[in-house]
Design goal:
The protein is mostly helical. The chain has eleven helices and no strands. α3 crosses α7 and α4 packs across α11. This is chitinase. Its EC number is 3.2.1.14.
């Protein structure tokens, strides 16, 4: 028979577990990017020349749920800044895309479709149009790219959440943690290391700052990549 003292301990432990579970549930991406916030951030989704109307809130949330660390790593400020960075980059990529590709981060090249397909359990190499016809798949490929390091490049996720530390080589190349490095990872060969700042890179920063302001979080350091040497191969 359970003693009264033991019963109290059991119920107290259960209460703590329930509370922890509730707190964990509140850490989902949806607790920061609510439906109203999503539509405020992407208020021009349906405009001419913008692919945004294809990317729905429900598709984003479903895709994000498959990547437990995405938008859930670190403190509240870190989480908000990562999500602002993700939407800053994807907003630029889907507004008059600057090169050929599919999805919110404009997936290109056979090897990326092969890698993404393997990671997601989909034949994206054989059927790449899945990325342009299924919004959940589209968001999954973007979040997969965001979360996955591709040597020598770290993942955008690690950069924005403090999970990456620059090497001596990175420091010499000006590659430091911050939003600017995510631009370098995504399209550094075209937009970084100019010393002036390209229109594309400036556009990315503009989106990022807008979303940080909406989420009421600071921008952090190193927003631009104009003084960063691109990684080999761009």
């Amino acid at each position: 028979m359970m003693t009264k003292a033991f019963a109290v301990l059991v119920f107290a432990g259960a209460a703590l577990l329930a509370a922890a579970g509730g707190a964990s549930a509140q850490q989902g991406v949806w607790s920061i990017i609510t439906r109203p916030m999503f539509h405020r951030m992407l208020s021009h989704r349906g405009d001419s020349g913008c692919e945004g109307a294809f990317y729905t809130y429900d598709a984003f949330i479903e895709a994000a749920s498959k990547f437990p660390g995405f938008g859930t790593t670190g403190d509240d400020e870190t989480r908000k800044r990562e999500l602002a960075a993700f939407f800053g980059q994807t907003s630029h990529e889907t507004t008059d895309p600057p090169y050929y590709g599919r999805g919110p981060i404009q997936l290109t090249h056979d090897y990326n479709y092969r890698k993404a397909g393997r990671a997601l359990g989909l034949d994206l190499l054989g059927n790449p149009d899945l990325v342009s016809t299924d919004p959940v798949v589209a968001f999954k490929t973007a979040i997969w790219f965001w979360m996955t390091p591709q040597s020598p490049k770290p993942s955008c996720h690690a950069v924005m959440t403090g999970g990456w530390a620059p090497s001596a080589v990175d420091r010499a190349a000006g590659r430091l943690p911050g939003y600017g490095l995510t631009t370098n990872i995504i399209n550094g060969g075209q937009e970084c290391g100019t010393g002036q700042g390209t229109d594309g890179a400036k556009d990315r920063v503009g989106y990022y700052k807008r979303y940080c302001d909406m989420l009421r979080v600071g921008y952090g350091d190193n927003m631009a990549c104009k003084n960063q040497k691109p990684y080999g191969g761009g």
